[in-house]
Design a protein that fits this description.
about 250 residues, alpha+beta, 5 helices, 10 strands, about 30% helix, Haemolymph_juvenile_hormone-bd, To_sf, signal, biological rhythms
Length: about 250
C-alpha cells in the first residue's frame, strides 16, 4: 500500500495550477532538466507534509490514513482460487515511507517509482468466496492485516491527450509489484460457526502468508493499479500539460 502513497504524491507533484490558482507547495520540472529524476524525487519530498491530510482542491485524498471505499480481487488459478471484495479499507503508516528510486522518461510519459515502508496496517470489511486447497470457503466479516518491511515498484504509462485544443496527460496503465518481509492477519467471521471458522482462517493465513500473498499478488497489484489510475487521471485531466512540465 505504500505505493499508493508514492503514486498519490506523483499526482500532486504533476499538478501545478488549477483554475488559475497557483500552489506554492508544488515544484514543477523542466523537460530540459538533465537530472529530471532528481527533480521529480525532490518534488515528492517537498509535498510529504501537505499530503498527510490530502489536498481537496486537487481531489487528492489524505494518505495517512488512506481510505479506500472498495477493492475487488479475483484469482481463478493456483491453489487459492477465490473472489474477494474488501470495503471500508483504512491504511495506516503510508506517510512513513522512503522513496528509493525514480526513473522518468518524459518523452514517452513514463515514470517508474520504488519505495519502502517499515510497517503498514490495513483494516476493513471483507467477503471471500472460493476454494483454498481442496476446501470450499465462504466468509465475510472484519479484518486487520499488518505488513512489515514492505517494498514495491510502480510503473506508470501515460500519453498526451488534447481536450478543447488544450494538451493534458492521461495515464493509460499503472503496473504494480511488491514484496513484504512479514505479514500477520486477523479476521472475524460474522457468519454461522463464527469462532471455529475465524480460528481456522486465521491459522491458515498466518502459517501460509507467503504463499497467500504470492498467489494473490497479480490480482492485488491489478486492483491497486486500477484505484491509483483513477486518482491520477482525476487530477491530471484538470491541469494543462504545460503548467506542470515546463519547456524552459
Amino acid at each position: 500500500m505504500r505505493l499508493l502513497t508514492v503514486l498519490i504524491y506523483f499526482v500532486a507533484c504533476t499538478t501545478f495550477e488549477v483554475h488559475s490558482q497557483t500552489f506554492d507547495y508544488i515544484k514543477s520540472c523542466s523537460r530540459s532538466d538533465p537530472d529530471i529524476n532528481s527533480c521529480v524525487a525532490n518534488s515528492i519530498s517537498h509535498l510529504r507534509s501537505r499530503l498527510i491530510n490530502g489536498i481537496p482542491e486537487l481531489e487528492i485524498p489524505a494518505i495517512d490514513p488512506l481510505k479506500i471505499p472498495r477493492i475487488q480481487m479475483e484469482n481463478g488459478s493456483g491453489r487459492i482460487r477465490v473472489k474477494a471484495v474488501f470495503t471500508n479499507l483504512t491504511i495506516y503508516g503510508s506517510s512513513n515511507h522512503t522513496l528509493t528510486g525514480v526513473r522518468a522518461n518524459i518523452d514517452n510519459y513514463q515514470l517508474e517509482l520504488s519505495a519502502k515502508a517499515p510497517r503498514l496496517v490495513a483494516t476493513g470489511r471483507y467477503e471471500v468466496l472460493g476454494n483454498v486447497l481442496v476446501f470450499n470457503i465462504r466468509s465475510k466479516g472484519d479484518f486487520q492485516a499488518v505488513f512489515e518491511d514492505a517494498s514495491g515498484l510502480a510503473k506508470l504509462y501515460g500519453k498526451e491527450v488534447v481536450v478543447n485544443n488544450v494538451k493534458y496527460m492521461k495515464i493509460e496503465h499503472v503496473g504494480v509489484d511488491f514484496k513484504v518481509g512479514k505479514a500477520r492477519f486477523k479476521i472475524r467471521d460474522h457468519g454461522s460457526g463464527t469462532r471455529v471458522l475465524s480460528e481456522a482462517i486465521n491459522n491458515f493465513l498466518n502459517q501460509n502468508w507467503k504463499e497467500v500473498l504470492e498467489e494473490m499478488k497479480h490480482t492485488a497489484s491489478a486492483a491497486i493499479g486500477k484505484f491509483v489510475k483513477q486518482i491520477i487521471n482525476t487530477a491530471l485531466l484538470k491541469v494543462p500539460l504545460h503548467l506542470w512540465l515546463t519547456e524552459d
